[in-house]
Amino acid sequence: MLSIDKNSPIPVYYQLKEDIKGKISKGFWKAGQCIDSERELSEQYGVSRMTVRQALGELVQEGVLHREKGKGTFVCEPKVKQTDIMSFSEMVRKMGLTPRTEVRDFEKVLTPEHIADLIPFEEVYKIDRLRIVGEDVIANEIIYIPCDYCGYINADKLKHSFYDILKDYGYVVDHSEASIQAVLMDEEYKKLFNTNKKLPLIKVFSKNITNEGRLLFIEESIYRSDKYIFEVNIFRREGKIR
Asked: What gap in Å lies between CA 141 and CA 218, rounded to an integer?
């Protein structure tokens, strides 16, 4: 029987959940592999089927596991999870993986009409990049930033963290205002993500703002939602909600 401390103030289902996550992170169960059944886990840990079901249910909700009817519960491919203001490169490295960036396009353009009301500059840099982990293209990012904010910048620099580039110029993003929507996979996106599959996609339009309230840059990104989680936290503020 595996170790579960039933006298601990930590709920039994949570101990079980964390132990299963630990086994996955150590490679005991690998991505795509079916884990032991509820009955087997119940016997191994000396806990009820209901406790096992609760632990597995939360891991499914968190995107660690997924269920296939009539087959079992399987380990998901690892996903990049964004929970706060953090560069893509930083998020991926925290997972123990290595990010890679391919610059598709970098040019100085007239400020596009659809963002002209937000960026009161005649010209902006348009930065079009693919964000890659392993062999998978996870995202396509298009960034618009006023040329006056960047000084000297080139395509080689843009292969690295954009947030680090901004820090070199003394800018720190304080918060981001984003809108999120689902996008249908079409032939253009299949080429972009180098796949023949119909993958689920999400589109994020974000305004990235400094602690001084300055709109620093706008980002329009498309993400593979089977590889990327965009977590949104909503808080109640006194006097704001009626």
From this structure: 10
pTM of the model: 0.65
Domains with residue ranges and CATH for the chain = 12-75 (1.10.10.10), 80-230 (3.40.1410.10)
**Residue-wise DSSP of 171-232:** --EEEEEEEEEEE---HHHHHHTT-SS---EEEEEEEEEETTS-EEEEEEEEEETTTEEE--
Q: What's 119's DSSP letter?
A: -
Exposure b/e, 218-231, CB count within 10 A at least 16 = b: bbbbbbbbbbbebe
CA distance 74 to 64: 9
Count of beta carbons in the 10 Å neighbourhood of residue 53: 14
Tell me the pLDDT tens digit for each residue of 69-111.
889 999 987 665 554 445 676 667 766 677 889 999 999 999 9
Residue-wise pLDDT tens digits, 183-241:
889 999 999 999 898 888 999 999 999 888 889 999 999 988 877 765 655 555 555 44
Q: How far apart are CA 228 and CA 221, in angstroms?
A: 12
Helix (H) or strand (E) holding 123: strand 123-133
Q: What is the DSSP letter of 129?
A: E
Query: Which residue do the tokens 């305004």 mark?
Result: 207
